[in-house]
Design a protein that fits this description.
The structure holds two protein chains of two kinds. By secondary structure, chain A is mostly helical. Chain A has twelve helices and two strands; from the N terminus they run H-E-E-H-H-H-H-H-H-H-H-H-H-H. In chain A, strand 1 and strand 2 form a beta hairpin.
C-alpha cells in the first residue's frame, strides 16, 4: 500500500475529527453513561439515586427470566442466521443459472430489501393475526391451532419467519455478486475434472464464496441480535406477557417501559461485553479458516 | 444578502416577534395517550377551552401508549423540555408521585391560582387514588374508569340466561352460553381486572404499608393469597373447558371477539363504552364486575383506573395559572358530562354526575351508569387502590405468569410464588431509587 505523506501534521487528525466526534457522541458517551448507571438505582426523573455496586448485575443474572430470554436469543439468532443464509444461497445459485429474464427474477428476489423492519413486522403480524390473518386461517385448516401471542412457540415461529423473510434479499444480493465473481476459467477447469454439479459447488464454488459467507455471517448474527427489535416489538405488541423476547428487547422493556434505568443499564453492559467477545471470537477463530485472494 | 438587507431583516424579525408576543396568549402544552375516538374527544376539549378564553392557548399532543407518554415525559423533564401537563396512568402513579419535585400538586396549583378546591366535590371513588400520604390531591383525575362486565343481550337471550352477579352465577350460565354457540367470557387486562380490582372487589389487602400509600420503603405485595389462587385455578379450568377465551396480553385482541359477536360477555373498561357504541352491531348492556360469594358476601367497590393529569414542575407562574384555569374548565360539570357521554369514562365530580342524571343520560343508556355506580359501592379498608413502584414491570411479571398458567407451562401455585418474589424484589429496588 502506498503511504501518503501529509505536509501538515495536524491535517490528518482534523480530517478524522468529524468521524471521531460521531463515535464519541453516539457510542462512547452513551456507553460510559450506561456503565455508570448500571451501578446505581435511580429515580427516573433524576432526583434521587443510590449506589448499589454490582447489585443490578446480580439481580439480572440471577433472574430466571433473564436466563430464559438469553436462551431464546441464542436459539433465535442461530435459526435466523442459518435459514436466511442457506435459503439466500440456494436462491442465488439458482438465479445465477437463469439466463432468460434474469433481471426480472433478481429484482423480484431483491425487492423485499426495500422494506423497513417495522413494516416487515407489521406485515408478519397482519398475516398471522389471531382474528383476521390469512396464514392463521391456513394453519387452522391444516389442523394447527396457531395463536400468536398466546402460545409462546407460535409467537417465536412468526418472529423467526418474519425475520428470515426480511433478511433473505440482503444475503441474496451479496451471494449473487459473490457467485458472479468466481472466475470462469476456474469453473471450466473444474467442469473438466468433475461431472457432478453438486460436488463442484461444494469443493470449488463454496470455498471461493467463503469470504462473502463470513462477512454475511457476522452481518446476520448482528441482525438477529439487534435489528430484529422492530419485528419483536410488533409481534408481541409491546406487551410480551409469556411470549419469548430477545435480550435487546428486554433492555427496552425494562428501561423504557418499566423505567428501571439501573437494571436496564446493567443488561446493556452485559450485552456490550457479549458482543465484544463475539467479535473477537469471530475474527480470531473463524477468519483463520477463510481465505481471501 | 448584503449587510444592509440583513440588518433590515433582523429588525423586522425583532419587531414582529415583539408585537406577536404582546398579543399572544400564554402557550401551554398537554401530552396525552388518548388515541382513536378518545383522541378526537381530547382535541375537542382543548379546542373548546381555547374558544372560551383568550389568555391561554392549550395544545394537546398525542404521545402514544401510556408507557410511551410517561417515558417521553421523563426524558423531556430531564432535558428541561417538559410539557405543562402530562397524562400519567394508574400504574405509573407511584413513579411520578414518588419523584419529589417532578410535579406541582393539583391542589396547590389551583389554590395558588386563587381557585377554590374542595375534595368533597369529587366522587368518592376518585378522591384519593392520586393523592399523597396526607390526602392532598397530586394528580387531577382525568379519564377515570373501572372494570365492568359488558354482555351481548342477544347472546344471553338466546341461551336464556341473565347476566351474572357473582362468579358462582357465571359457573351456572357459562355452559348454557357455550351450548348456544358462544365463548362465554373474555377479559382485556389480567393484572388490572383479575388482580388489582379482584382484591378491591373482595376487600382484600394488596400490599403492606397500607397498600403502599405509606411510602415505598418496606412495601411488600400480598398477591400470593388463597382467594386469588382459587380464582385463577377456576379461570384455567374454564379456559380448558371452553368457557373462557384468552387471546393474549393485548387489550384489543380480547375485545375484538366480543365485538364480532363470538364472545358473549367481556370484562373491559367503563371507558370502552363510547367505542363499543360505535363498533358493536348488537344490543349490549353492562353490569358490575362479578365477585366470589364464597370470598365476600357482598362485593365491595372498585377503584379508578385510567389516568390523571399532572402539572410538571419548573414552569413559570403564568403558565401554571393557565393550567389551573384549564383544570377548572375540565372539571366543570358541562365538560365532564360531555366527556362522560362521548367516551364512557366516569364523570369525576358529583355535579357532573347529577347533571348526567338530570339530563336523562342513564335512562337512554343504562349501561353508561354501571361504572360510576360500581365506584360508589360500599368501600372497605382496601378499596382505595394501591401505590407501588416499578409497577409496570410488576404488571409485566403478572402477565407473563398468567400467560404461562394458561398455556400450561406453570401451575397456579408456582406462578403466584414467582409474582410475589419478583414483585417484592422490584419493590425493594424501587425503594432505593429515591436515594
Amino acid at each position: 500500500m502506498k503511504r501518503v505523506q501529509y505536509s501538515n501534521p495536524i491535517l490528518p487528525y482534523a480530517l478524522l475529527l468529524p468521524q471521531l466526534a460521531i463515535v464519541a457522541v453516539f457510542f462512547l458517551w452513551p456507553a460510559v453513561e450506561a456503565v455508570r448507571a448500571s451501578f446505581y438505582l435511580e429515580d427516573p426523573f433524576g432526583f434521587g439515586s443510590t449506589f448499589v455496586g454490582l447489585e443490578n448485575f446480580k439481580d439480572t443474572l440471577t433472574n430466571s427470566q433473564y436466563a430464559r430470554t438469553a436462551r431464546f436469543t441464542l436459539i433465535f439468532t442461530v435459526l435466523v442466521a442459518f435459514f436466511s443464509l442457506s435459503i439466500a444461497l440456494l436462491l442465488a445459485v439458482k438465479a445465477d443459472k437463469v439466463i432468460r429474464g434474469a433481471g426480472s427474477y433478481r429484482t423480484l428476489l431483491m425487492w423485499v430489501y426495500a422494506i423497513a423492519p417495522p413494516v416487515a413486522g407489521l406485515l408478519g403480524v397482519m398475516l398471522f393475526d389471531q382474528h383476521i390473518g390469512p396464514l392463521t386461517e391456513l394453519a387452522r385448516s391444516l389442523g394447527w391451532n396457531l395463536q400468536v401471542g398466546v402460545t409462546p412457540f407460535d409467537t417465536a415461529f412468526v418472529m423467526v419467519i418474519t425475520a428470515v423473510w426480511k433478511q433473505i434479499p440482503v444475503n441474496f444480493i451479496f451471494f449473487l455478486s459473490g457467485l458472479q465473481s468466481v472466475p470462469k476459467s476456474v469453473q471450466e477447469a473444474a467442469a473438466i475434472d468433475c461431472r457432478s454439479g453438486t460436488r463442484r459447488f461444494w469443493t470449488v464454488t463454496f470455498p471461493l464464496l467463503a469470504p462473502t459467507g463470513f462477512f454475511l455471517l457476522i452481518i446476520n448474527i448482528t441482525y438477529a441480535l439487534f435489528d430484529t427489535f422492530g419485528i419483536v416489538d410488533l409481534v408481541v405488541k409491546g406487551e410480551p406477557g409469556n411470549n419469548p423476547i430477545t435480550l435487546v428487547y428486554k433492555v427496552f422493556v425494562d428501561g423504557f417501559r418499566g423505567n428501571d434505568l439501573g437494571g436496564s443499564s446493567a443488561q446493556s453492559v452485559i450485552l456490550m461485553v457479549l458482543v465484544f467477545l463475539l467479535t473477537v471470537f469471530q475474527f480470531r477463530m473463524i477468519e483463520r479458516r477463510v481465505h481471501y485472494n | 444578502m448584503n449587510y444592509r438587507s440583513a440588518a433590515r431583516l433582523l429588525a423586522f424579525t425583532a419587531m414582529t416577534t415583539a408585537s406577536t408576543a404582546s398579543f399572544a396568549a400564554t402557550e401551554i402544552s398537554w401530552w396525552h395517550a388518548m388515541g382513536g375516538t378518545l383522541g378526537e374527544v381530547v382535541n375537542e376539549i382543548a379546542a373548546g377551552y381555547n374558544e372560551t378564553q383568550n389568555a391561554c392557548n392549550l395544545t394537546p399532543v398525542y404521545k402514544g401508549t401510556y408507557e410511551e407518554t410517561l417515558t417521553s415525559g421523563i426524558a423531556a423533564f430531564r432535558a428541561g423540555e417538559q410539557p405543562n401537563v402530562i397524562q400519567v396512568f394508574d400504574a405509573g402513579a407511584a413513579t411520578i408521585i414518588g419523584a419529589k419535585g417532578a410535579v406541582v400538586p393539583a391542589q396547590d396549583l389551583l389554590e395558588d391560582a386563587g381557585k377554590e378546591f374542595n375534595m368533597e366535590d369529587y366522587i368518592a371513588g376518585v378522591r384519593y387514588f392520586y393523592a399523597d400520604t396526607a390526602g392532598k390531591m397530586i394528580g387531577m383525575p382525568f379519564n377515570s374508569s373501572t372494570p365492568i362486565l359488558y354482555y351481548n343481550e342477544e347472546a344471553l337471550a338466546k341461551a336464556g340466561v341473565e347476566a351474572p352477579k357473582t362468579w358462582e352465577d357465571f359457573e351456572v350460565i357459562a355452559p348454557k352460553l357455550k351450548e348456544a354457540g358462544y365463548v362465554p367470557l373474555s377479559q382485556s387486562h389480567l393484572p388490572w381486572i383479575f388482580t388489582e380490582n379482584f382484591m378491591s372487589r373482595h376487600n382484600l389487602q394488596f400490599a403492606t404499608n397500607n397498600n403502599g400509600y405509606e411510602g415505598a420503603k418496606g412495601t411488600e405485595i400480598l398477591v400470593n393469597n388463597e382467594a386469588i389462587k382459587a380464582h385463577f385455578a377456576k379461570v384455567k379450568e374454564w379456559l380448558d373447558g371452553g368457557l373462557f377465551g384468552y387471546y393474549g396480553t393485548g387489550w384489543g385482541d380480547n375485545q375484538t371477539p366480543f365485538q364480532e359477536g363470538k364472545v358473549a360477555m367481556w370484562l373491559g373498561s367503563s371507558g370502552s363504552f363510547g367505542g363499543l357504541m360505535k363498533s358493536a352491531e348488537f344490543k349490549f348492556s353492562s353490569t358490575f364486575l362479578p365477585y366470589w360469594n364464597s370470598v365476600a358476601e357482598q362485593g365491595s367497590g372498585t377503584f379508578i383506573g385510567g389516568a390523571a393529569l399532572f402539572a410538571m414542575a419548573g414552569k413559570p407562574k403564568a403558565e401554571n395559572d393557565c393550567v389551573a384555569d384549564f383544570y377548572g374548565y375540565l372539571t366543570s360539570a358541562e365538560v365532564q358530562y360531555e366527556w362522560h357521554q362521548k367516551t364512557g369514562y366516569v364523570p369525576i365530580t358529583n355535579a357532573a354526575y347529577e347533571l348526567a342524571k338530570k339530563d336523562g343520560h342513564y335512562d337512554r343508556f343504562p349501561a353508561a351508569e354501571t361504572g360510576i355506580q360500581q365506584l360508589n359501592q360500599p368501600g372497605g379498608d382496601w378499596t382505595k387502590g394501591y401505590r407501588m413502584g416499578f409497577y409496570v414491570q410488576i404488571r409485566d411479571v403478572m402477565n407473563r405468569e398468567y400467560g404461562r398458567i394458561f398455556s400450561g407451562e406453570t401451575t397456579v401455585e408456582d406462578a403466584f410464588k414467582a409474582i410475589e418474589e419478583e414483585g417484592n424484589k422490584l419493590l425493594g429496588r424501587f425503594a432505593k431509587t429515591a436515594g
